[in-house]
Every structure is written in C-alpha cells, then in structure tokens.
Amino acid sequence: MQDNVSATVQWFPGHMAKTRRQIKESLPLADAVVELLDARIPNASTNPELGGLIESKPRLRLLNKADLADPEATRAWLSYYKKRGDAAIAADCRSGKGLGQFRPAVNALLADKIRSNAEKGMAGKALRLMVVGVPNTGKSSLINRLSGKSAAKTEDRAGVTRRNKWYVIGGGLELLDTPGVLWPKFEDPEVGVKLAFTGGVKDQILDTETLAMRLLQTLSALYPDRLRERYRLPDDFAEKEPYEMLETVARKRGMLVSGGEADTERAAVMLFDELRAGKLGAITFELPPLEAQT
Predict the structure, then answer these.
(1) Torsion angles phi and psi, residue 104, rounded to 5
(2) Does domain 207-292 have CATH number 2.60.40.10?
(3) Is a pLDDT exceeding 70 seen at residue 240?
(4) Residue 103 pLDDT level (bands cut at 50, 70, 90)
(5) 130: CB partners within 8 A, 6+ apart
(6) Which of 181, 198, 81 is nearest to 131 (CA)?
(7) Which alpha helices (H) appear in the chain, and where do they start and end?
(8) In this structure, are strands 165-170 and 87-90 parallel, antiparallel, or unpaired?
(9) End-to-end alpha-carbon separation of the chain, Å?
(10) Residues 6+ apart with CB under 8 A from 109
(11) Cα gap 65→27, rounded to integer Å
C-alpha cells in the first residue's frame, strides 16, 4: 500500500516541473501568496517545496473544506499557526462560510504594502494574490465564490486547473489561479495515504479496495463510534482483519455479487463517495504537533 501511494506522484512529472516553473515566473507579479490547505489534512496538504518557491512573499494559509473537518481539530490548527506567527483562516469555499475573514486577513497580511501604496499616491491599488495548493484543495472554488460567478473550472477531483490565469474579483483584489502541484517524492508514505483519502491524488491510479481498508482502519482508531453507527457495524469491528472490515461494510450495505460474496470493490467506492460528501460526519485525519497544542 505504501509503495502504491508513494508512486502516485510520478504520474506526470513533466507537468509538475512545468507548474513549479509557472509559479516561480509569476511570483514577482504577486504581492502575497494564498496557500489553500485541506482542513482535514493541513500538514499532508502542505507542499514542502512551497517555502523555497515563494521565498519571502507574505503567505496566508486558508484551511478549506472546514465544513468537512472536525471543528475542534480545526481550532487546534489555527491556534498552532497563530503561535508560529503564521496568518491562517478556515473556511468552506464552496458555500462561502468563513470567507468573510478573507479580506481582513489579506489587509492585515499586506498592511505595509497598503500603507506604502497610499504614501506613493496609489491608495486603493489592487492587491494581487497568487493562489497555490496541492490538487483538489479548492483553489478554483475560492475564486468562483469571491468573484460571484463560475470564473474558474471546478470539479471534485485532482488535476482540473491546467494553467495560470488572473481573475479580477472586485474590491481591489486580483487572484492568480495556478494548477495544483504535488512534489517529486513523499518522504512520509502516510502523507500520500491521507492525500488519497481526501482526493488529492487521482483515484484511477490507486488500488481503491486496499485504500478503503486503510481508511476503515484509520476511522476505527479515530472515530469508532461514528463509523459503527453509520454502517451498523458490530462492536468488535476494530479487531477484524482489514479485508474482513471491508467485507463487513459491503454486507451491511447489501453489496453482494453472485454466490453471495461481498462486493468489496463497490463498497470501497461507496466509502470514499460518502467520506468526501461529508456523510461520515466532520473528520480530521491529523492534529498539529502536541507541543504546539499546550
């Protein structure tokens, strides 16, 4: 499983290199960078190469899909960033919930730039923000919600945006959408697993049943009661072998093939559909370092 997920970032390395080059070339045009993270996996959805790419540009972290994340965990992440001195907000870009914080956060981040523009007689000059993030973190959804129209193509899968494009969204803001970019190799295989759980890598290149087994093991450890209630699972579910877990879920949902065998492939697809639609409730797969929570 680890080797399978680790290999997923090799699907089109030429595109990855091109995207990094596009970001580097466009960066001088931007006043700041808005990094979209998945609120369910803030660490796993952080591109470790980004710091080197953007260098000293001011950065605002936006924990998107907060509606799907555990609220208590999201508060812990925001506190973690605040203690580090990093600007961060949480929101749901599709519904717009929480985006009322966006402009005030940008103004605070770029207070010196705004003041400098005013002193040069350019008060009200548009602030230009580069929007970056790994695939499927919601960059296009942010632009569409802020602009009030479907300006950027959005789909609930990785790899939709293909090129850089500027959008004038009004209120003195311009946003540059960039393609989602992963990095050449996951140092920690668990990062790849979490990205796969949330749709950050393409489903077509993964063993969905194996990944579903990992998901059931993870949820059994993090949210056992909720998992049992959703699929009416037995109390000893967490003690079962991974394949037996998936079989049990398939049978509980009546997913059988000829001969009465469990249709584990169909159950795996159903699990990820329900997870990503929020039907399993608000779930976060990782917390900030313990020392940062005290």
Answers:
(1) -60, -35
(2) no
(3) yes
(4) very high
(5) 23, 26, 27, 29, 30, 32, 33, 34, 54, 57, 175, 176, 178
(6) 181
(7) 2-6, 13-26, 50-54, 71-84, 102-109, 111-119, 139-147, 189-198, 208-222, 224-231, 242-252, 264-276
(8) unpaired
(9) 34
(10) 32, 58, 59, 60, 87
(11) 26
Average pLDDT over residues 30-52: 92
Any idea which residue has 């409730």 for tokens? 281
Phi-psi category of residue 139: left, alpha or beta, with phi > 0 → left and psi -120 to 50 → alpha: alpha
pTM of the model: 0.86
Cβ contacts of residue 104 below 8 Å, gap of 6+? none
Per-residue pLDDT band at 203 (split at 50, 70, 90): low
Query: What whole-number distance in Å separates Cα of residue 111 and Cα of residue 105?
Result: 10
Residue 33 has pLDDT above 90, yes or no: yes
Tokens of 106: 């940008």
Say if strands 165-170 and 173-177 run parallel, antiparallel, or are unpaired: antiparallel
d(CA 201, CA 158): 6
pLDDT of residue 291: 54
Whether 200 shows a pLDDT value over 80: the answer reads yes
Coil, helix or strand for 168? strand
Long-range contacts of 241-249 (CB under 8 A, 24+ apart): 242/213, 242/214, 242/216, 242/217, 243/213, 245/213, 245/216, 245/217, 245/220, 246/209, 246/212, 246/213, 246/216, 249/216
Question: Has residue 132 got a pLDDT over 50?
Answer: yes
The pLDDT of residue 6 is 43
Domain positions in the chain are: 7-177, 207-292
Taking residues 147-159, report their average pLDDT.
52
CATH number of the domain at 7-177, out of 3.40.1080.10, 3.40.50.300, 3.40.50.720, 3.40.50.2300? Answer: 3.40.50.300
What pLDDT does residue 239 have? Answer: 95
Query: What's the burial of 246, exposed, middle or buried (CB within 10 Å: 0-12/13-18/19+)?
Result: buried
